């Protein structure tokens, strides 16, 4: 029975075989990997991953798809976790001693940012992440200071990960085709992120990018003085997208100390 993609779950199923094969080459699954796939859908990527890994965990919200997956795959090879990835505790997935978790998936675009922040909480337990996301989102993730795409998402994720846009995927690779281009991103957690309290960094960055058209001294007025901006190595007349990660971390540390 054909599964009808559900808009409320953000379902766009990847069907292009050449794109699927390119993603698998990028991930390079190995037999002993501890791997979890988010949103396996109709299992196009799942089947290819299982040619590389000995065992795979998948997290799927759609109950109809959960049933299909459980019927199709041997539980000795695939464990299906039925539920919302935004609420799923990825730290509970067992990994072999000395190993870290590998996370992959074609992420629903409507929850991509909150899901990335949810996963960032377990970054020390993760070896790498490979995701299909809306191209515009990936461009924001990897943007350099000075770019119009550089913003809150850029700072928060670049503080935690090394990231690389691997390649672009056109809408025609999906059923149904989305209205935008997609991209594959590789995310490798940093072993030693810049010393910083994440909550203070979040507060600082949210305030800084709340009024992008203003210069940063006006954006953070009431939270930081001009003297504190200078202390953090920031020209107060710059726009927030022109300020680098290191400077935002310095500001966050000033906020904590005050």
Automatic annotation (TrEMBL):
The keyword Isomerase does not apply. It catalyses: adenosine(1518)/adenosine(1519) in 16S rRNA + 4 S-adenosyl-L-methionine = N(6)-dimethyladenosine(1518)/N(6)-dimethyladenosine(1519) in 16S rRNA + 4 S-adenosyl-L-homocysteine + 4 H(+). Gene3D superfamilies: Ribosomal RNA adenine dimethylase-like, domain 2 (1.10.8.100), Vaccinia Virus protein VP39 (3.40.50.150). One of its GO terms (cellular component) is cytosol. Its main location: cytoplasm. One of its GO terms (molecular function) is RNA binding. This is Ribosomal RNA small subunit methyltransferase A.
């Amino acid at each position: 029975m054909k599964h009808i993609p559900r808009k409320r779950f953000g379902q766009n199923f990847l069907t292009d075989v050449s794109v699927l094969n390119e993603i698998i080459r990028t991930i390079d699954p190995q037999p002993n990997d501890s791997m979890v796939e988010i949103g396996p859908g109709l299992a196009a990527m799942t089947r290819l991953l299982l040619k590389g890994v000995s065992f795979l965990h998948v997290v799927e919200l759609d109950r109809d798809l959960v049933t299909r997956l459980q019927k199709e795959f041997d539980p000795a090879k695939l464990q299906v976790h039925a539920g919302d990835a935004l609420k799923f505790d990825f730290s509970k997935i067992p990994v072999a001693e000395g190993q870290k978790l590998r996370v992959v998936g074609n992420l629903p675009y409507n929850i991509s940012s909150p899901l990335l922040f949810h996963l960032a909480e377990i970054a020390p337990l993760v070896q790498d992440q490979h995701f299909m996301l809306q191209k515009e989102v990936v461009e924001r993730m990897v943007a350099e200071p000075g770019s119009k795409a550089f913003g809150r998402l850029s700072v928060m994720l670049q503080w935690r990960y090394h990231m690389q846009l691997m390649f672009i995927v056109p809408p025609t690779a999906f059923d149904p085709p989305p209205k935008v281009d997609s991209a594959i991103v590789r995310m490798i957690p940093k072993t030693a992120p810049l010393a910083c309290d994440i909550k203070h960094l979040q507060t600082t960055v949210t305030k800084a990018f709340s009024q992008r058209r203003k210069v940063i001294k006006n954006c953070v007025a009431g939270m930081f003085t001009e003297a504190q901006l200078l202390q953090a190595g920031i020209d107060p007349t710059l726009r927030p997208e022109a300020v680098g990660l290191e400077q935002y971390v310095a500001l966050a540390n000033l906020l904590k100390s005050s």
